[in-house]
Design goal:
Helix 11 crosses helix 13, helix 12 packs antiparallel against helix 13 and helix 19 packs across helix 22. The protein has 737 residues and is of the alpha+beta class. A 6-stranded mixed β-sheet has the order 4-5-7-9-11-10. It has 3 domains: 242 residues, no CATH class; 441 residues, Purple Acid Phosphatase, chain A, domain 2, CATH 3.60.21.10; 33 residues, no CATH class. It has 22 helices and 25 strands. Bound molecules: 2-acetamido-2-deoxy-beta-D-glucopyranose (NAG). 2-acetamido-2-deoxy-beta-D-glucopyranose (NAG) binds next to loops.
C-alpha cells in the first residue's frame, strides 16, 4: 500500500513537471519564433588596409552625448527636473554635439510617497517643452526606460505618454521598438541603434525592473546590425544586458551573435547602485569583443557622457554637472504645468577634457579598433569643452608624470574643439602601461583628464570591481538558476526518502541501518575526523529520511507547496490601474505575468520568485526537517517568529503597491502558505505556544532536556510517540486556516 502511495507521489510530481514545461513554453513563446532560413549575408569587416595617420588636422573625428535616467518629477525639487534643465541650459551650448541620446527613464512616474506609480502628463510636457524651447540645432534621440512604462496597458494606450511626448516615438512605433540612424562621413560610416526594451504591458512598480526583446524585435535588431558593414555600430538601451531577456530572431540569431558585430552597448538604469558598488558599471565582453558602458543618472549624480570617435578609436568621459549646479538645491518645485519653461540661470562650467589619442587601454577593443594608429600617430589629440575662447585656456600635458615638451595648440573650429600636441610614441617603452594627464586652466577654473594607455595594441583590465562584475553577469539566468535549484533540491529531498524507504520494505529500511551505524560511530573512542564527518552526513540523511514519517503533514505541505508554486498562479493583483475593467488585473506566475490570455515574460517574476522560494520556502524547509523550531533555544525560536513576521510584512506590502488587499492578498497562495508556516511554527509541541505555556508552569528544563536527549540518541521510538500529537495540533489548526 505504502509502495503504491510513493509511486503516486512520483507520478503526480511528474505530471506537474509536464505542466511546468507547458507553462515555460507558453510564457516564452514570444521570445522564440519559427525558424526561417537565413537570408542575411553577414557584412564583411571594414577594410582598414589603407592607413590613415593621425596628425594635427581636425578631421576624422566626431562626438556625441549620452544622458540617462532624468526622472523628471512632479514631486521632487532636488536633482531631477532641475538638473535636466541645467543640462540643456548650461552644458549643451558648450558641448555642441552632433546629437544627444537619452537612454530612458525620462520621467519619474512615482507618486508623492514614492510607493505607487503612474504616468503624469505634467512631467512629460516639461520634457517635451524643454527640448522644443531649449535645444536648437542638435538632433535628439530618446527611448523609454522602465519608469516610462510603469502602469502601461499597451503602446496605444492613452497612458503611454511617450507616444505623444517622446522625441523618437514615431521611429519606435514604426520599428517595433527598435530604430537606427547612420552617420555617413567622408572618412567612414557609423551606425547607431536604439532599443526600447520595455514590457508590452508595463506593471506598476516595483515588479517592473527588467526588459525584454521579443523574437520580432530581435528580427529588427538583426536587420539593423547586419544591414551593411560599418566602421562602428553602437547600441543604446535603457537596460544593461544583465537585466534583459533577449529572444531569438527568426533566423536563429541570439543577442550574442549580433553583439559580435557591434562595438559598444550604451545603457543606464542602475544609476550607481549604492555604497560605491556601481561606480564603474562598465565591462568588456570577451565573447562578443564589445564594450558595455552603463552611465550613471542625471537625476541625482548629475552625470552626462561625451563619446568621441577619432580615426575609429572610441573614447568617452563621464562628467558630473558643475558643483555650482549640484549644490544649488531649489527648495520649491519647478512648476511643470507652464507652457513656457522656467529656465534656471546658466552656470559656467569648468573645462571638460576628452583625450582621444592615445586611447584609454581599459576600453580598447583590439578586434574592432585600429589601435596601431596610436603608435604611428604624430600628435596627441584631445577635445576641450569650455565656454571660453581657446586663447584664454592654458593647457599642460604630462606623460608618465613628466611635463610634455611640445606645446598644445588649438587646431579646431566652432564645431570641433580639438587640441593637439606633437609627440613621438617611439620614445616610450612599447610593452608598458603609460599615463597621460591633460590639464586645462581658465582664469577661474581647472579641468583635467588622466588616462592609462599602451602602445602595443593590448587591452588592460577594466578594474571595475563589483560594478564590472555585475555588468558581466546575467542576472536573469542567475535568478532562474537559484529558483530552479531550490525547487529541485527540495523536491528531491522530499521524494527520494519516500521512494527509497518504500522500495526497501522487504529488507531493512535505510533508517534502521543508518541509525545502527550512527550508534556505532558514536561509541568510537577516540572520535576521528573522518568519523565525525560521517556522523554529520549520516545524521543529516537520517533527518531527511525520517521527515515524511515523523512530520507527515509538514512533509505533505512542502510537497504540495512546491508543486503549486511551480504550476499555479501565486497571486492576482491590480498591475495596471490605468487600464479598463478587468484588464487591470494580472495573474502572477513564476513564469511571467499573465494578463487575460497574454503572457508578459518579464523577468521580475524570477527575482520575486527566487526571493520567495529561498526565504519563504527553503529556509522553513530546513528548519522543519532539522526540527530547529522544536529543538532550538528560546532565543532561536523568537528569532524565527521575528523572521516570519518580517516575511509576512513583505508580503503584505503587495497590497500597498497593487491597489489594496483585494485581490492581491485574498487571491494569494503565498498568504495561505505563510499562515500555514506560522501555524506549524507556533502550534507544535516544543513550538512557541508550548514554550510559553510550559514556562509559566516552570517545568521547561526537564521536558525540553528529556526530549532533546532522546532525540540525539537517534531513537526513533521516542520521537514518534510525540510526533502524532504534533500532527494532531497541526490538523486542528490547519482547519481554522
Ligand atoms: C572606415 O572604413 C573604411 C572601409 O570601409 C576605411 O577605408 C576607413 O579608413 C575607415 N575609417 C577610419 C576612420 O578608419
Amino acid at each position: 500500500m505504502a509502495v503504491v502511495r510513493a509511486w503516486i507521489y512520483l507520478l503526480f510530481t511528474l505530471i506537474c513537471f509536464g505542466r511546468v514545461w507547458y507553462l515555460f513554453r507558453l510564457s516564452t513563446a514570444s521570445l522564440r519564433a519559427p525558424r526561417i532560413p537565413t537570408t542575411h549575408t553577414i557584412p564583411a569587416d571594414v577594410d582598414r588596409s589603407i592607413p590613415i595617420s593621425m596628425g594635427a588636422e581636425p578631421k576624422g573625428i566626431f562626438y556625441f552625448v549620452q544622458i540617462s535616467d532624468l526622472h523628471i518629477s512632479k514631486f521632487r525639487p532636488k536633482g531631477h527636473t532641475h538638473y535636466f534643465l541645467h543640462f540643456i541650459r548650461s552644458i549643451l551650448p558648450v558641448l555642441k554635439p552632433s546629437f544627444v541620446v537619452v537612454t530612458g527613464d525620462l520621467t519619474d512616474a512615482k507618486d508623492m510617497r514614492r510607493v505607487t506609480s503612474q504616468q503624469y502628463v505634467e512631467e512629460w510636457s516639461l520634457y517635451n517643452y524643454a527640448i522644443d524651447q531649449g535645444v536648437q540645432g542638435t538632433r535628439w534621440y530618446d527611448m523609454r526606460g522602465n519608469h516610462d512604462c510603469f502602469d502601461l496597458p499597451s503602446w496605444k494606450s492613452r497612458a503611454n505618454l511617450y507616444r505623444t511626448h517622446g522625441q523618437s516615438a514615431s521611429l519606435i512605433a514604426e520599428g517595433g521598438g527598435i530604430y537606427a540612424w547612420e552617420e555617413r562621413l567622408e572618412y567612414g560610416r557609423y551606425k547607431f541603434i536604439a532599443i526600447d526594451a520595455c514590457p508590452k504591458k508595463g506593471p506598476s512598480r516595483p515588479l517592473n525592473f527588467f526588459g525584454y526583446l521579443t523574437s520580432k524585435a530581435m528580427d529588427q535588431l538583426a536587420s539593423h546590425v547586419l544591414s551593411d558593414s560599418y566602421n562602428h555600430t553602437f547600441m543604446f538601451s535603457h537596460y544593461p544586458t544583465t537585466t534583459m531577456v533577449f529572444g531569438v530572431s527568426s533566423q536563429g540569431y541570439t543577442y550574442r551573435d549580433l553583439a559580435r558585430h557591434t562595438s559598444a552597448y550604451f545603457c543606464g538604469h542602475l544609476h550607481r547602485l549604492i555604497g560605491g558598488l556601481g561606480d564603474i558599471l562598465q565591462a568588456y565582453h570577451p565573447s562578443t569583443q564589445s564594450l558595455e558602458l552603463e552611465l550613471g543618472d542625471l537625476k541625482e549624480h548629475g552625470l552626462y557622457r561625451i563619446v568621441a570617435i577619432d580615426h575609429d578609436l572610441i573614447s568617452f568621459v563621464d562628467t558630473p554637472l558643475p558643483s555650482a549646479i549640484m549644490k544649488s538645491r531649489p527648495e520649491r518645485l519647478i512648476p511643470l504645468d507652464n507652457t513656457t519653461v522656467l529656465w534656471p540661470h546658466a552656470v559656467d562650467i569648468a573645462p571638460v577634457v576628452l583625450i582621444t589619442n592615445p586611447k584609454e587601454a581599459r576600453f580598447s577593443i583590439p578586434a574592432k579598433e585600429p589601435l596601431e594608429q596610436i603608435q604611428k600617430s604624430t600628435h596627441l589629440r584631445f577635445l576641450v569643452f569650455s565656454s571660453l575662447d581657446p586663447s584664454q585656456l592654458q593647457v599642460s600635458i604630462w606623460i608618465d608624470n613628466i611635463e610634455h615638451i611640445h606645446p598644445a595648440e588649438f587646431v579646431g573650429n566652432q564645431e570641433m574643439p580639438l587640441w593637439v600636441a606633437k609627440w613621438d610614441p617611439s620614445s616610450l617603452e612599447l610593452k608598458e602601461l603609460h599615463t597621460i594627464r591633460v590639464q586645462v586652466d581658465t582664469p577661474t577654473m581647472i579641468g583635467s583628464s588622466s588616462i592609462e594607455f599602451r602602445l602595443d595594441n593590448q587591452r588592460t583590465k577594466v578594474n571595475g570591481g563589483t560594478g564590472e562584475w555585475i555588468i558581466s553577469t546575467h542576472m536573469t539566468s542567475t535568478l532562474q538558476c537559484i529558483t530552479a535549484f531550490s525547487f529541485l533540491f527540495m523536491l528531491i529531498l522530499l521524494l527520494v526518502p519516500v521512494l527509497h524507504t518504500q522500495a526497501n520494505i522487504p529488507t531493512r529500511s535505510p533508517i534502521e541501518i543508518w541509525s545502527k551505524k550512527l550508534a556505532a560511530l558514536d561509541r568510537q573512542d577516540p572520535p576521528r575526523i573522518y568519523g565525525s564527518v560521517q556522523t554529520n552526513v549520516l545524521s543529516s540523511a537520517l533527518q531527511f529520511y525520517q521527515f515524511p514519517q515523523e512530520q507527515p503533514i509538514v512533509w505533505h505541505g512542502f510537497l504540495v507547496g512546491c508543486l503549486v508554486l511551480l504550476t499555479c498562479p501565486w497571486f492576482r493583483a491590480e498591475f495596471l490601474p490605468s487600464a479598463e475593467g478587468n484588464e487591470r488585473y494580472g495573474n502572477f506566475y513564476l513564469w511571467g505575468i499573465m494578463f487575460g490570455s497574454v503572457w508578459e515574460p518579464i523577468a521580475d517574476t524570477w527575482l520575486f520568485g527566487a526571493l520567495t522560494v529561498v526565504l519563504d520556502v527553503l529556509v522553513f524547509f530546513v528548519v522543519f526537517v532539522y526540527r530547529l523550531h522544536l529543538k532550538g533555544s528560546a532565543r532561536f525560536k523568537s528569532g524565527m517568529v521575528v523572521y516570519w513576521l518580517w516575511r509576512v510584512s513583505e508580503l503584505l506590502s503587495l497590497a500597498m503597491f497593487y491597489g489594496g488587499w483585494w485581490p492581491s492578498l485574498v487571491l494569494n497562495f503565498l498568504v495561505a502558505w505563510l499562515c500555514w508556516i506560522g501555524v506549524v511554527l507556533v502550534g507544535g509541541i516544543g513550538g512557541i505556544w508550548t514554550q510559553i505555556h510550559v514556562q509559566q508552569q516552570n517545568i521547561v528544563p526537564d521536558k525540553e532536556a528529556q526530549w532533546t536527549q532522546e532525540d540525539e540518541n537517534g531513537s526513533s521510538s521516542s520521537s514518534s510517540s510525540i510526533e502524532p500529537i504534533v500532527c494532531g495540533v497541526h490538523v486542528k489548526n490547519r482547519r481554522k486556516v
